[in-house]
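In keeping with the milestone schedule agreed at the kick-off meeting, the structural modelling team has produced records for the first pair of proteins. Each record is given below as a sequence line and a structure-token line. The laboratory manager (R.T.) confirmed that both were archived under the project's standard naming scheme.
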Amino acid sequence: MTLTYILAAIILLGFCIFVHELGHLLGGKMVGIKAKIFSIGYGKGIVKKKVGDTTYQITLIPFGGYCQFYGEDPKEKRAGEDYEFLSAHPLKRIVVVIMGPLFNLFFGILLFFIMNTIGYPTETNRVSIPDAMKSEGLMSPAYKAGIRDGDRIIEINGEKVYTFSDIRIDTLFSKGEPLRVKVERNSKNLDFLVEPKRFSEKGFYAMGVMPYGERVLIVRTLEDDVADEAGIEQFDEIKRIDGRIIKTPKEFTKYIRANPGKDVSLQIYRSGKDIDLTIKPRLKELITIQHFEDNRFKGEKYTTTIERLDIIRNAINDRKLKINGKIIASFGDFVNNLNRNAGRAIRIENSGGTYYGICKYEKFGFVGVETAVSSEMIEVNYGILSGFARAIVEPFDFIIMNMKAFGMLFSGKLNVRESISGPIRIAKIAGDVAYYKGSSAFIILMAKISIILMIMNLLPIPAVDGSYIIFFIYETIRGKPINEKVLEKIQFVGISILIILGGFVIFNDLSFFPFFQKLFN
């Protein structure tokens, strides 16, 4: 598994960077600017071959790469020849610079085209609505409009919808404006008007639907708990429990809660294989207190849960726990008191203070997993012409989506921490996709990352391609380059910003990993 993650990161980021540098190399050849070194990987070359004026090399760690041109360094002495980068006309330099990002775009389009024509599995356009979003408060806009579990969304605002990704893109940046949604239900087409909403202050607009599915997905396992020790992993799919087909997280949770201390057999689907496991749910006890109030802070009421019942048991053993003024003799007496006062507020006293609230005691089986619905998948496959058309449209939609997201980030409408991913998190995502979803999903991810690299490199930030394009356009219009000292200051500021941003991104990436969260907790 570890090797899969390492290889996935190297292949994804390595290919995308290699393609970018290849674009610069071929751009130079187009306009007569010569490359001194074209390197696969960074550092000293271990395999070298000089072809013409260019040395092609592979380094010890062939990850990414670079293309170095003659006369590229402003401090380097130049002969004033047209093949030197800084001696060439600025329009030629623009071609060299812009070909890097463009090759990332072409690479993305090529990968989309290949996958569109050979076919790949993706999330269906059939939707479900979480139970928590079917009642007042967090009610799903789709559910409120009349859309129900199992409906297939086939059009939004007159545009055809093929996958759940189409639904997400059409909704993300709707600005809350009503969407005309056509669904297919029991072979009939129905029309609804859905008003998307943002479920957090700095979030995207959503209509409150999830991909439909009839299998339980393990989203997360608690470290050192029952499921983790039994060998259950993130992204496992639960197919059967004690021979019964399980279709929803609710069914899975209900069965586990009803069987504490008993051996339960699970059939799990992982990386294309069925695996049989046995698990024994542990007994978990929990006290929920509604309208909880501490006598020291009167007027402050909230809901809380108590999982460490040993504290209560110790207080009972020391005869220091009272309910409504009566000393509690045993834990059984405590539970009976709570049951007799079900739905009513009680007064609890111990050596720590006096508390009030509506208390409920529960005991149930627990294995330490977070579950979700595993999405229903469909095979997407197009002919050559339609596949090529989709390969143009999909990157364009993806670029528009990312540009709008950048705008929302800079305007403060999106949560920066949750929306920005750096190389560490991208490597983690690449490993997850390769290990759990297979090669098709990995290639689609590579296409998207390549396009994101194009966008990032075209931003007008000093020290990246976008800034050089602006400098060279300025030089073309003005007739002479920017003063070297001014350019050095601009580049220094740009590199400083990139270093700070890089530090933030790396720290942000690490903050999503459990070991890092534990370190700071």
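The second protein of the pair:
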Amino acid sequence: MIDRLTNVVAELRERRAIRFLVGYLVGAWITAQIAGFFVEQGYVGRKVLDVTLFLAVVFFFLTAILVWYHGEKGQQRVQRVEGVLLAAVLLVGAGGAAWIAARDATQGFTSASAVYDLGQNSVAVLPFQNQIASADLEWLDRGIADLLATDLAQFDTLRVVSGQRVFDIMRQLGVVDSRTVPEGLQTEVTERAGARYMLTGSIIGSPDNIQIVATLSDVRTGDIRASARARGRDVFALVDEVSDAISVDLLGGGMAAAGKAPIAELTTGSIEALREFDIGTQAMWQGLYSDAREHLERALELDPSFSAAHVQLAMVLFQTGDFANATEALQRANQHLETASERDRLYVGAFSDFVFGSAAEGEAKFRELLSKYPYEKDVRITFGGFLSQFPDRGDEIERLTLETVQLDPFYGTGWNQLAYRYANRGDFVGADSLVQRYIDVEPDSPNPLDSRGELLEMAGNVEAARDAYKQALAIRGDFAIALSHLARSYRREGRYAESRAALAPYRTSEFAETRVWAWWLSADAWVSEG
């Protein structure tokens, strides 16, 4: 055994294999360090480093084969075995590099969407088929579903999937542009939502004679558990009639009748306000916050006591950073909580405790909310935001944020917050991959590029950061926060004249708000310069 090992070592020396391979490893290490530097500085993406490391391993085997067959002194020929080995290694290298370049750099975060079992009495209300040919009532497909979900959610013994969750799953299945869930996907949507039953149906008739037909099905057996039918002109009365019939079957007559309020008291008695609320809610689900705010404010003009609209508006304003108006909206929402759903009461209560009162009480309400409604991604982001005031809660914040993108891989806010978490701990390569996913899911939004700019600044690549800020402004010229970040990047370095020069094109912008910000930031540069 020792003699054989001695012979192998002697042959390696004769072929100069050790010298060549050590030299190769040193060169590969230097190459990897250079690639890592360019990735960290934001000049290239993470995939470049991944491909570089993979090819370094592949070329190590190539080098070993070549050294073994040609390391000896004198002239050698390419042997058949050597040719086969070289071809095999090259084939693996080409295929592996192509796969790494094409794969999603963040796929490990969302290998499967999170699914929660909501228990025996759980229902997913899917959008109804709306067959009424009226532009004013085309929103009823999802509107009726949301009203029924809100009405059924009054019962503590029922778990009702939110419309947001249904929408998210539809988007994951590629049917986001459809107003309803195709029949072949209804069971899958319900199962992904974690519900045992699905409520489907249709809306037929005319604006003066609306008929709602609903069917409650067990997704495990395929059996129809209950059905209901209601006809009339009053949408709210029809929803009450259908939900009464469904709840009686699920809970029994006595439990269903106890303490159930008419849907108009929980939402609004104005069909116009309800329409604006539905459009605003749909916009909010898609991250179109300016559109959502416009329609929600219109709903509240039509019905100032519309509690759910106050809650949604407060959430939208907090999402967009308009904290002053968000706080006012939150105070108004508190005034109407007696008619709000349990979910909204907990959400507004937790929010209010953190903003106005006790952080401990707010945390308890957030935990109760997630216990009862585990699929709430926005609640996780909001809760994590409030926990950020405590330095020792970083791991929990990251877990909550990671769960949001597991629930919905298209949730840009989740990818954004996760990217900042990685950057704050110094992992700028990981942060770049995550913010790229944010850009991918919201390609027409300026905020992902603004976030990339901030992350590049944190990594020390200020020039690339400025380019990102300018790209954000190219998408939306009135995105003033990117303008502020652009000016800040120069001000931090004491380059006040260059800051004013960078702001010059925006001082004549077609957007009034951008012009005001550009002049204000320019004036700030003059003052700072003395």
